[in-house]
Design a protein that fits this description.
- The complex is a heterodimer of chains A (451) and B (295).
- Helix content of chain A is 67%, strand content 1%.
- Chain A is mainly α and 451 residues long.
- Helices cover 31% and strands 30% of the residues of chain B.
- Chain B contains 7 helices and 12 strands.
- In chain B, the strands form 3 sheets. A 5-stranded antiparallel beta sheet of chain B has the order 5-6-3-9-10.
- The chains are: A mainly alpha (451), B alpha+beta (295).
- At the A-B interface, β1, α14, α15, α19 and α20 of A face β11, α7 and β12 of B.
- β1 of chain A pairs antiparallel with β12 of chain B.
């Protein structure tokens, strides 16, 4: 039974987001606690500085590529119809009625457009893999009506832009548009460092058995998903034998060129301030302030002394081991590999804020059609465990930050519990996943000779 | 000889008189450095930080004394009386509001010819900061006519890595806002403040104490063709301040937790990594589609 068609789904989601944005404007005006994310004000102020010909880094705590500020500048000088280009006609009427004057409001509406674009890309990927329409709609619903994602988007967070680019890269790879995929990959790593963790699975996916000159890659249909482990072992051996293939070298060169080109341009414009705030800060960040990470209290208690190099390496080791084992286990099913890598990256990171969850929420719909997990009751249990652990942490965080109680130990224990919840959910998803490589092996005369 | 002696005496007296006249003129009109200050800077504190890198109480007080000696405005001499009636720290947790009730008494007859503003300077103690963008937002909403933070305004640094900062707030004193008997203004100034992560301790809390604010009344004589400005500071006589010290107890980490927290954190990370490792290694060798999608 068809739940609803995709167009109705998008329109309904758009209305929901517009309502939230209107509510957000009301809350910002009438209540002490603002609806708008603080980061959103940072982005908008940085964009306004760029329009004035100044460095976006004059805005304190702006720690992103200037590209993001550049993307938001049209809201300062283009007519309010800037957002209309990205929305369907029915939503334009609502926006006109709302009378978009404030540049902040225009910014937020554009951010919600990207939210909907992510939903569209999710559908595209699932359709490319032959997933039936009903399953596709259910999967897209998980993104469009996820309370985290629509509140983060309507509060003005920029993560949906990164999600949209990553999904577009997946689409490019699936369609064999490696040049375009490489350009976008270089760009997204410049904008946000974390997608660098996808480099190895992408390289593994660019297997010469899948990508051959003059041929589009053949995608495994959803209806025929089954796989044997020994093929994966063989592929790892083949990978090490023929690591330097044309598609791998080209992808690496193009994405590296784009990354260094963007980095070079902005270094020329904004010099060391850009390099430090947009790149080095994220690589060396150790924030002692409370956050979901299990490391926050350890960092705070040791903040007055410098960590030794050995200590830093040891703390990085669990993250490294997990990333390597996930990549070599699941690389050929690269949407799933991206998902579990991202969950692990966030869980083992030294700093975790709520916006990081969007990084894997946009990938979750891509793996659902291949999961044997039933919503009742295994799925619900995972959701409750994850949300419960997070709520528990938030309670202690509230007691510390808004009631001024000395509850550092309890808060740190809550972060351990949240970490355990993340590991539990990740392992459950892995165990219930039907491993399905994206691409079929292309049959060539050489392949026939070997077999 | 006598004539020459008389000439020397005359020149001496003339010299003394000229010096006195110059001194009176200096007092009567705003000193060049003072007028320059308000011409070049909207905020007093901005001028301080042009000459000094960090906030040092002694240096700031010397700066106030040397740059902002009060000047009489207009044809009449007058001295407003500035007092802080009450100081309070409102709220709980890491985000609070420092409120000061300020009374400025002034002769009614001079109000009409002057345009005045109250300036409150809070030299914040180490461990507390104000968000300049939040102050800008309040100014945009009309709560203040001007407000900014100076010094170390990095929002993220813990106390051990941060320097002190200063908040300067300007509030217009219009005749319409005079209190009932029309010879004083009563202002309630509320400044939003945030606590930094405190240095580690043994007991779990760090005490942060606030000093009294520096108060000024800055006036421009509208009848003066030169539009000179003058200023009265709270270091003058007749200022009363609230005797009660304002204290903020900020939660801080406990040193004796260090070892156990570090050890358990690493154990948790290793156990988590091993769990994921085992799950991947023992992942089912053959995963087969069973024909229906499980919902």
């Amino acid at each position: 039974m068809e739940v609803m068609n995709f167009r109705s789904l998008i329109i309904f989601s758009a209305f929901l987001r517009v309502l939230l944005i209107v509510y957000g404007e009301w809350q910002d005006t009438h209540m002490e606690v603002r609806y708008t994310d603080v980061d959103y004000l940072v982005f908008s102020d940085a964009a306004a500085l760029v329009v004035d010909g100044k460095s976006p880094y004059k805005r304190s705590t702006y720690r992103y590529s200037p590209l993001i500020a550049f993307i938001l500048t049209p809201n300062s000088f283009i007519h309010r119809s800037w957002g209309k280009f990205l929305f369907s006609a029915s939503v334009n009427a609502v926006k006109d009625w709302i009378s978009v004057k404030d540049q902040y409001l225009r910014c937020r509406l554009s951010r919600s457009d990207i939210d909907l674009l992510v939903g569209y890309f999710i559908r595209t990927i699932l359709k490319l893999r032959g997933v039936p329409e009903n399953l596709t709609i259910y999967s897209v619903l998980v993104w469009l009506f996820n309370p985290f994602t629509f509140t983060i988007g309507t509060r003005g967070n920029c993560e949906p832009i990164i999600c949209a680019i990553i999904l577009w890269i997946i689409i490019c790879i699936m369609r064999g548009n490696l040049f375009q995929g490489a350009v976008w990959y270089g760009l997204v790593v410049h904008m946000r460092i974390y997608p660098i963790i996808y480099a190895l699975p992408i390289v593994l996916t660019l297997d010469p058995n899948h990508f051959q000159r003059g041929k589009k890659p053949a995608i495994v249909d959803w209806n025929s998903r089954q796989h044997k482990l020994n093929e994966t072992s063989n592929r790892l051996w083949v990978f090490f034998q023929s690591i330097f293939t044309r598609s791998r070298i080209l992808f690496g060169l193009i994405s590296a060129t784009v990354f260094f080109f963007c980095t070079g341009i902005f270094f020329y414009l904004y010099e060391w301030e850009f390099l430090h705030e947009a790149l080095l800060y994220h690589l060396t960040r150790t924030d002692p302030r409370h956050n979901f990470s299990i490391y926050f209290y350890h960092i705070y208690l040791n903040y007055e002394r410098e960590f030794a190099v050995l200590e830093k390496l040891i703390s990085f080791l669990p993250q490294l081991i997990v990333q390597i084992v996930l990549v070599f286990r699941f690389a050929q099913d690269f949407p799933f590999c991206f998902f579990v890598q991202t969950v692990a990256f966030v869980a083992f990171n030294k700093v975790i804020t709520a916006q990081y969850f969007v990084w894997f929420f946009c990938l979750l719909p891509l793996i659902l059609p291949w999961s044997k997990m039933k919503l009742k009751w295994e799925g619900i249990l995972c959701v409750l465990v994850w949300i419960g652990a997070q709520t528990h942490w938030l309670f202690w965080g509230y007691m510390l930050e808004f009631k001024g109680k000395q509850v550092f130990l309890q808060l740190w224990a809550a972060s351990l519990l949240f970490f355990a919840a993340n590991i539990y959910v990740m392992i459950t998803i892995i165990r219930r996943h039907t491993y399905s490589p994206v691409f079929k092996r292309l049959v060539t005369s050489r392949t026939k000779k070997i077999t | 000889m006598e004539y020459q002696g008389f000439r020397v005496l005359l020149h001496l007296r003339l010299g003394i008189m000229l010096t006195l006249l110059a001194g009176i003129t200096y007092c009567k009109h705003a000193p060049a450095s003072f007028s320059e200050l308000f011409r070049r800077h909207k905020y007093i504190t901005e001028a301080y930080f042009q000459k000094h890198e960090t906030l040092i109480d002694r240096a700031f007080q010397d700066f106030i004394s040397s740059e902002l000696s009060h000047v009489f405005c207009g044809k009449q001499n007058f001295m407003p009386k500035l007092s802080v009636m009450q100081r309070q720290l409102i709220g709980e947790g890491s985000h609070r509001r420092l409120t000061s009730s300020v009374k400025i008494e002034i002769q009614p007859e001079v109000i009409s010819s002057l345009s005045c503003e109250a300036i409150v300077i809070e030299r914040l103690p180490s461990g507390v900061f104000a968000d300049p963008f939040e102050l800008e937002h309040l100014t945009g909403r009309g709560v203040f006519s001007g407000a900014s933070a100076f010094g170390d305004t990095d929002l993220e640094l813990p106390t051990v890595r941060a320097n002190r900062s200063v908040v300067e707030v300007h509030v217009d004193l219009s005749p319409n806002s005079l209190s009932g008997n029309k010879n004083s203004w009563e202002l309630k100034i509320e400044i939003p403040l945030h606590a930094r992560y405190a240095p580690l301790g043994k007991h779990g809390y760090t005490r942060v104490e606030f000093e009294s604010p520096d108060l000024f009344v800055h006036c421009v004589d509208e009848g003066d063709t030169l539009n000179q400005s003058c200023i009265f500071s709270s270091t003058d006589e007749g200022v009363r301040t609230s005797p009660h010290a304002i204290v903020w107890e900020v939660p801080s980490g406990i040193v004796k937790h260090t070892k156990i927290v570090s050890v358990l954190t690493f154990i948790a990370a290793v156990v988590g990594a091993l769990s994921v490792f085992m799950a991947c290694i023992f992942y089912s060798e053959v995963s087969v589609y069973n024909g229906t999608k499980q919902s």
